[in-house]
């Protein structure tokens, strides 16, 4: 299910004068996954733009060398 489909599956109820949106847990998880993907795409696009601006020089673009950071990710 896409994020848009999850948003379209929302049902609304009114409780004590407040309008609430109801999603199934599965639809909620799909929506979160979709938002995380959008966030990842934005990060990748920004990194690519920085690399292009640095003329393809990874160090100048602020990228770190894998061997210097890989042990920090364990």
Map the helices and strands.
Elements: H1 3-8, E1 11-15, E2 18-22, H2 25-53, H3 66-69
Antiparallel strand pairs: 1-2
Number of structural units classed as domains: 1
What is the residue-averaged pLDDT? 92
Secondary-structure element order, N to C: HEEHH
pLDDT < 50 stretches: none
Give the helix tally. Answer: 3
If strands are numbered along the chain, what order do they take across the biggest sheet? Answer: 1-2
Q: Measured on Cα atoms, how large is the radius of gyration?
A: 20 Å
Q: Describe the largest sheet.
A: 2 strands, antiparallel
Helix content: 40-55%
- Strand coverage percent: 5-15%
- Find the count of extended strands (DSSP E, 2+ residues): 2
The rounded distance between the terminal residues' Cα atoms is 32 Å
Protein structure class: alpha+beta
- State the shape: elongated
Structure, explained:
The chain is an alpha+beta fold. The chain has one domain. The chain is built from three helices and two strands; from the N terminus they run αββαα. Strands 1-2 form a two-stranded antiparallel ribbon. The longest helix is centred in the middle third of the chain and has 29 residues, at 25-53. The protein is elongated. The mean pLDDT is 92.
